[in-house]
Amino acid sequence: MIGDSRSSVRVLLVGEHVFAEQQVPLVRLLEEQGYVVVHARTGGQAVQVARGLEADLILLDSALADLSWVDVCEVLQSELKVSHSVPILVVTRTNPTPEQRVTGLRAGVWDFVVYPPAPGEFAAKIATYAQAKRNVDVALAEGLLDPVTGLHSGPALARRARELGAVMARQ
């Protein structure tokens, strides 16, 4: 996804309870912001859907019926058809403990969202992560990142050196 339109941002919502029952459905918040929302009720469904969706962002309920959120993150990170640049956010009902945060980060989680979120903060957080994904996609498309290592390529380093040289020359 290289365009700027939010309508082209695909968000995969994973879970049953937090997305349907609560007073502030995340689906509604996302759709009001113009995102395309795809819903998977279980962790197993999420893996199947993610293989073909090319999601730009994944919101994962911390209380899944079939798998733990950690297992789902690890499976998604091991999937070749799911890019490592896809932000995965875990939706929890309480603030995660430091141990849960470390476990999540090791499993590939980018962040946690406490439910129900403040709508303004939630919208800004989702937009920021969608933009981060878009930036990585652009960098990969322009050959600025090595797709295997995720590190800057030779041409990218040369470009950045020119940019820094130009900045220094102006000062």
What do these coordinates show?
The protein is an alpha/beta fold and 171 residues long. It contains seven helices and five strands. A five-stranded parallel sheet has the order 2-1-3-4-5, sandwiched between helices. Helix 3 (43-53) packs parallel to helix 4. The longest helix has 23 residues, at 119-141. The radius of gyration is 18 Å and the shape is globular. 27% of the residues are buried. The mean pLDDT is 85.
Briefly summarize what is shown.
The protein is an alpha/beta fold and 171 residues long. It has 7 helices and 5 strands.
Q: Which range best describes the helical content: under 10%, 10-25%, 25-40%, 40-55%, 55-70% or over 70%?
A: 40-55%
Total number of helical segments?
7
Overall strand count: 5
Kindly state the mean pLDDT as a whole number? 85
Q: Largest sheet at a glance?
A: 5 strands, parallel
Beta-strand share of residues: 5-15%
Topology:
Blueprint (H helix, E strand, L loop, with lengths): L9 E5 L2 H4 L5 H7 L3 E5 L2 H11 L3 E5 L7 H10 L9 E5 L5 H10 L3 E4 L4 H23 L12 H17 L1
Parallel strand pairs: 1-2, 1-3, 3-4, 4-5
Helix pairs in contact: 3-4
Considering the chains and any ligands shown, give keywords for the structure:
five-stranded parallel beta sheet; alpha/beta; 171 residues
